[in-house]
Amino acid sequence: MQGEVYVVNSGKGGVGKTTATANVGSALSLRGKRVVLIDADIGLRNLDVIMGLENRIVYDLVQVIEGVCQVQQAMIRDKLTENLYVIPAAQTRDKSAISSEQVKELCNKLREDFDYIFIDSPAGIEQGFKNAMEAADKAIVVTTPDVAAIRDADRVIGFIEAAGLTKPELIINRVRPGMVRRGDMMTTEDILDLLSVPLLGIVPEDEHIVVSGNRGVPVVHDNRSSAGEAFRRVAARIEGEDVPMLKLEVSYGIFTWIKKMVGFKRPMGAKA
Amino acid sequence: MDDLKEIAKKAPSIAELRDKVKQSKTLDNVGGMVKQVFERKEASRQNAHSRLKAVMLQDRTTMTADALMDLRNHIIVLLANFVPVDRRRLEMDIKQSGESLVLTANVRVDLEPQERMANGNGDFEERDWLLSPKRTAALRRDMLDTVGSYMPIFPDSAKVREEHFSTHIMVYTSLRIADGVGFDENAQQEMSVSFRSGEF
């Protein structure tokens, strides 16, 4: 087995990079793939809480790299999906604690046992980002349809291409179809025109993401969530399937209006 | 004193003033609501797109907005020597391609039907090209000279291509920037031409 190493970055923080890593990884493991997610955001770890694994941490990435423990000892097995593991970041160290060579070496070791290794890169273009990027074969850039996130994504894409990785693929997160329709949010075409990278997925703004984060259950486990469906499609595309983009529609029906008026929300199923 | 009393008598009471303010506020609210319903706000999407295009062009080259505007104007002048250019129709962009940046300057040329020398099928033949091989070579050379005075470029990287459509002709030009990220910052300071935002 020779797994592929993906780095997930964004440039700007808070665009949903960790959420995307957790969900794409979970979706791939639901498809029967062996996946490991590495939280490379040292000092600001979050992947563990998004996955609901924060109480199971014994060792972290820095301890693996420093030889304090074996990599298998730091890997936390996901509670909902088989074949999915998380290596948490250290919370009490800083990004200079590891080098790109060390991350590369670790990923090369993991390639032998896993189909996919996802590195959740820290935001920004500092050393942490470079460590994550240099260890990867492919890159996924996550952005939201706002000017600051797109500008930062462009900077990151420039660095990734200059580093010799294959052209990064783009996930546009938190798209609001109503605003796009009104002309108050950039369209997918606008964003692709600006960034000139292939599109991997469009994820709509979805309240289920917040609920799933609260519960520590990635949204791909909820079949009623549109964001979950979008992430499942991203996983299928990574697997080489030709899947259409999720059609984002604004519902104007009378029931939508009534539901809005009475504040009705669909309950979120946390079952795997 | 009597005058003052008279004025005070005529003046509206505080309660009356309150009513008036209330009334005007209500009218304002109603007016605002009517305005909101009927007034069509300009969509912000296009604004964001054009602003980003300009700002990302600067980010990619580390050139100032002024320098980019200056370069764009020079490219327009240069292209105008070879093809009829509508300055609003020039699209200039700088994008990462592999390890280097590529500058593209594409222009759309609209010609009147009688000016377009299409054959019977509406297709264009080689003799109908705007740019002969000789002129293409000259344009390539001038592109290298012009852009080369702004940024380091790969020698012989200039490409020129024209494509004919039923309604218009597109002239595509591109060249590779040798080191876009490391563009000499001192050189930027010397360039100062006024920049109109949203031009790109």
Q: Could you provide a short overview of the structure?
A:
Chain A is an alpha/beta fold.
Task: Output mean pLDDT of chain B.
Answer: 71
Can you tell me the overall shape of chain A?
globular
Give me the CATH fold name of the largest domain in chain B.
Threonyl-tRNA Synthetase, Chain A, domain 2
Greatest interface by residues involved: A-B, 22 and 19 residues
Instruction: Please give the number of β-strands of chain A.
Output: 8
Number of helices of chain A: 12
Lateral arrangement of strands in the main beta sheet of chain A: 3-4-2-5-1-6-7-8
Name the helix and strand elements of chain A from N-terminus to C-terminus, one letter apiece.
EHEHHHEEHEHEHEHHEHHH
From the spread of the alpha carbons, the general shape of chain B counts as elongated
Helix/strand structural class of chain A: alpha/beta
Corresponding CATH architecture of chain A: 3-Layer(aba) Sandwich
The CATH topology assignment of chain A is Rossmann fold
Unreliable residue runs of chain B: 180-200
Task: Name the CATH class of chain A.
Answer: Alpha Beta
CATH superfamily of chain A: P-loop containing nucleotide triphosphate hydrolases
Largest sheet of chain B: 4 strands, antiparallel
For the record, give the distance between the C-alpha atoms at the N and C termini of chain A, rounded to a whole number: 27 Å
Structural key phrases:
heterodimer, A: 272 residues, alpha/beta, Rossmann fold, eight-stranded mixed beta sheet, 12 helices, 40% helix, 15% strand, globular, disordered C terminus, B: 200 residues, alpha+beta, Threonyl-tRNA Synthetase, Chain A, domain 2, 2 domains, four-stranded antiparallel beta sheet, 6 helices, 44% helix
Write the layout of secondary structure elements.
The complex is a heterodimer of chains A (about 270) and B (about 200).
Chain A (H helix, E strand, L loop, with lengths): L3 E6 L7 H14 L4 E5 L7 H5 L9 H5 L5 H4 L1 E2 L6 E4 L12 H12 L4 E5 L6 H8 L3 E6 L3 H16 L6 E7 L1 H6 L5 H8 L3 E6 L2 H9 L10 H13 L15 H9 L10
Parallel strand pairs in A: 1-5, 1-6, 2-4, 2-5, 6-7, 7-8
Antiparallel strand pairs in A: 3-4
Helix pairs in contact in A: 1-11, 5-6
Chain B lengths: L1 H9 L3 H25 L6 H17 L3 H16 L9 E8 L2 E10 L23 H16 L10 E6 L4 E9 L7 H6 L10
Antiparallel strand pairs in B: 1-2, 2-4, 3-4
